[in-house]
Prior knowledge:
Blueprint: H1 15-25, H2 28-37, E1 42-43, H3 44-51, H4 55-67, E2 71-77, E3 83-89, H5 98-105, H6 111-120
Antiparallel strand pairs: 1-3, 2-3
Helix pairs in contact: 1-4, 1-5
Amino acid sequence: MSENPAPREGPGPTGDQLLKILSALGNPHRMRIVAALLDGRNYVSRLARELGIGRPLLHMHLQRLEAAGLVVGELELSDGGKAMKYFELTPFCLTLTPDVVAAAARTLPDEEKDAEKEKKDPMNTKETTK
Length: 130
């Protein structure tokens, strides 16, 4: 996976998608994980050794990258029957310009309108508490 895919045509990322991607890449460990996976897929234990971080921390970072759509994980059985989780990069190309950011921002929910709706009908909230 050494070549960058061409920028995709059509609409750019939504505001939520852009925030997930930028948040995922806004951490040095996650940037190093992307760099380490550039040469191809790798399994968690080997990746943790190569990066010098613990597996639990690596799993947490991989989950963030996976939620942003930047990596994908697949569970496989080794010849010895041991389950191994492999991760690889998904092809992505993001061109970040003021126009892309503005278009993504227009898709974000209007927090002021949401707050007004909640004031009028406090029982109609997005999250429920138990």
